[in-house]
Fold this protein.
Amino acid sequence: MSRAFVKEGDGEVTLPERAVSAHPNLVTASGLQHIEAEVRALDAARSAAREAARSTTGGAHDAQSLASIERDLRYWVKRRASARLIVPAARPQAVRFGVTVTLRAVSGEADAGPEPGVGDAIRVLRIVGEDEADPAHGLVSWVSPVAEGLVGARGGDEVAVGGQRYVIEKLEP
């Protein structure tokens, strides 16, 4: 640990705050549940860390751990306070926040590639809040370039995602 973050003498540790996005904090129902779970878990961890610090003499390690927990808790409390739950339409007509989009690669482009059958490639993406984004699992932040390229598109429209052309096959809440 860098000594730059340690206050000399009192054993307290000061960590830089986690950056909070300047964008509105749009969340899906599962995103809001995630935020609530983070707040509960961190609150419990803070209580446990404080109790452990009172019963032991862990010193700097306990102070570092508690500072990290408290910093993360402040972040998630801010995110909970600013959360705006967005519920997608039951039958979405266009790509919007919270909508799951099934995309099929355009055959002409993909078939020209070295791998046969690539033209039938299907991708499923869901437009979600910044804190629940996980591109590897098809969860893309609503402020990402991918989402910006999809928002407003309708079933049957052709769109570009990651340099590849796709047709929107299905929209689901």
Observations:
- The domain at 100-172 is CATH 3.10.50.30 (Chitinase A; domain 3).
- Helices lie at 29-55, 60-82, 107-111, 145-150.
